[in-house]
Amino acid sequence: MAVEVTNVKEQAQKAQKASKTLALLTTKEKNEVLHVLADELEKEYETILTENEKDLANGREKGYTEAFMDRLSLSKERVEDFAKGLREVAALEDPVGEILSSWTLDNGLKVEQVRVPLGVIGMIYEARPNVTVDATGLALKSGNAIVLKGGSSAIHSNKAIVDVMHQALKKTKIPAEAVQFIASTDRSATQELFTMKEHIDVLIPRGGGSLIQTVVNNATVPVLETGVGNCHIYFDSKADVEKALNIFINAKTDRPAVCNAAETLIVHKEWLNANKDALIAKLNEYNIKVHGDQTIVDTIPGASLAVEKDWAEEYLGLEVAIKVVDNVQEAIDHIEQYGTKHSEAIVTEDNETAKQFLNQVDAAAVYHNASTRFTDGGALGFGAEIGISTQKLHARGPMGLPALTTIKYCMSGNGQVR
Amino acid sequence: MAVEVTNVKEQAQKAQKASKTLALLTTKEKNEVLHVLADELEKEYETILTENEKDLANGREKGYTEAFMDRLSLSKERVEDFAKGLREVAALEDPVGEILSSWTLDNGLKVEQVRVPLGVIGMIYEARPNVTVDATGLALKSGNAIVLKGGSSAIHSNKAIVDVMHQALKKTKIPAEAVQFIASTDRSATQELFTMKEHIDVLIPRGGGSLIQTVVNNATVPVLETGVGNCHIYFDSKADVEKALNIFINAKTDRPAVCNAAETLIVHKEWLNANKDALIAKLNEYNIKVHGDQTIVDTIPGASLAVEKDWAEEYLGLEVAIKVVDNVQEAIDHIEQYGTKHSEAIVTEDNETAKQFLNQVDAAAVYHNASTRFTDGGALGFGAEIGISTQKLHARGPMGLPALTTIKYCMSGNGQVR
């Protein structure tokens, strides 16, 4: 069974070889493959659920949290969602082959800047088995082979999903070797991926901060850094009370465990003086635990004094750090110091102050009078995303299909020399 | 004197602080600064030449090659060329602030994808003092601060150039701190830059292969890998003789020491059989030393048998490796194995074969019937380049001003939540 191979280098080489075939397929051919994968996953859902049960049993034994078990757990409906996701990716525009620009030099040499696949994507991720399907779909649609290294807690689910996809690929023009699954749970297997520059074009880590930092600090393969979000909402002195509280509550509580959720609230002292009762009422209504500076501790009943680490914390739950400032510059400076360059929002009715915030804050996404929750490929209309980049090179913010491509200059001449 | 500071972290922090001011300047303001720098360099050329003389004396003592000494050597004319380069950069379009796309979500949230500076660029380079000026000009124009770490052989020249630029910056809106020069020739100073993710946004190494690999293998700061070029010219069976020889001779001899020069010639056996005398005559006319496979050794008088290392070698001089193949696929496979993904060319009158080559060869630039020498920012009309990327992420091929920017999503709403 292909997934049992544990020679990581050999797997990466096979992926690379398959990527050459894949890069030359038409959009129609790739879309057909995605539909075959979707159909096969739906058909074989019982096999997948049986294997998933092994991971769940293992998780119960290890005493994983309820939230973790929920992310790990599959059902017929969740497998159907995988298939739906693949069909949605099939419906997206194919970036490959797009001519981004073209011109002719004075000597007649024709230059075309064309989008081409990256080649081989190395995906290193934690528990969620849906990443196995989503990442594969996006990789294949953009003409890339993929090497999957999922977390050990989902190993049986992921193996079962990949087995089904391999069976499906055998009916298609894409070689099954284009999807490689590292079945070893040994850390050394992951580390081998870090330096396999000859065969892997990019590594995309998805998961918690420590996974991502391990990849960034050890990889010589280029990395697309994703996801850690210590996002701030700033209530300016001229913030509308209702907008401010709605935006904060949405960003904090809609899905507290995701990276575009708010973790710190920064409040102008004048706004706080005028609206402290409304803020306290909302915090109580949503059971949000508060860590704050001294002013907040003196103002909000039950707030504990924030320590240095609170300002950098991704709580990923119903907790928030709150800081009081004298002006917008102080808010910008605080974000500069503690932010993770993900998503940052200002609430104000003063357009000049908003402009200053949007211009000066260095983040993938900056918001005026809206929730940070919109930093998401789906919400922005990208159709699907492979992750949210918090780095500045190559791609920033939600990464859709074009982030999985590079460019190539194609030159046609009739003997031009310099 | 600012350039004497050797606390690398402090310098990077100063650059980062200055980058915040720089990012907000208008195009007009930045252009004015570039003109002030150009004027001051011209005015102070004697100081620069005096300091350059120290590097030259040191170089003579160390017995550097003539080519090396030529690259190191400055003159009034060369300093004037620095100034001319800065004025040309001033004339280029400013990428910063460009709105790459904008749309409005169904809920009314307005999304703008805007180009913004990267922040702080770390430039690590070898002998040529012109990089000190060129890189600074491109960085400032694109709104970035720069930390310069030049080679020790040009230390006096580089220091003098930066001193003059610092004097000039004091008359402008750009803080002198935006240009930092690491005066220490200690390797540990360079290594500090490798991991300074908090303060440096990208490292750009320019120089020989070993410098570049050291940066790539040790940096946790994202790297834009530049320049090593093992470029191939393939003469197909249907290659026009005159075009083929002209293109090869141009790519090999016009400037043999640059990265877009040809290093390997691949020849279809039929072409060789029909045109060996013409090829031999050209190789002799230009005194090109040949390393070849057995067929070449049997065909070309004086050719030595190529060893494995010859196929991967950047000769950077009047030497070439020549391989004979049976078909285009064999040529593509050879390039896949030994190429550096820089620039690769096919010469043929058969458009289908050309298409196959352009589609399948994985390189920044692929050519049909033209010299690889056009892979150059100036030649392609980019105005100036900070280097030629041989990696696939962020930027590929010649990198002009846009390669020194990233994007930012700016969202404006009236209270939108998810």
UniProtKB/TrEMBL annotation, chains A, B:
EC class name: oxidoreductase
Cellular compartment(s): Cytoplasm
GO CC, any one term: cytoplasm
Biological process annotations from GO: L-proline biosynthetic process
The keyword Amino-acid biosynthesis is assigned to this record: yes
Ranges for domain Aldehyde dehydrogenase: 6-291
This protein's UniProt keywords: Amino-acid biosynthesis, Cytoplasm, NADP, Oxidoreductase, Proline biosynthesis
Pfam families the UniProt entry points to: Aldedh
Stored CDD domains: ALDH_F18-19_ProA-GPR
Reaction it catalyzes: L-glutamate 5-semialdehyde + phosphate + NADP(+) = L-glutamyl 5-phosphate + NADPH + H(+)
E.C. code: 1.2.1.41
GO molecular-function terms, A-Z: glutamate-5-semialdehyde dehydrogenase activity; NADP binding
InterPro entries: Ald_DH/histidinol_DH (IPR016161), Ald_DH_C (IPR016163), Ald_DH_N (IPR016162), Aldehyde_DH_dom (IPR015590), G-glutamylP_reductase_CS (IPR020593), Glu-5-SA_DH (IPR012134), GPR_dom (IPR000965)
PANTHER family tied to this protein: DELTA-1-PYRROLINE-5-CARBOXYLATE SYNTHASE (PTHR11063:SF8), GLUTAMATE SEMIALDEHYDE DEHYDROGENASE (PTHR11063)
Name listed for the protein in its UniProt record: Gamma-glutamyl phosphate reductase
Organism (species): Bacillus taeanensis
Source lineage: Bacteria, Bacillati, Bacillota, Bacilli, Bacillales
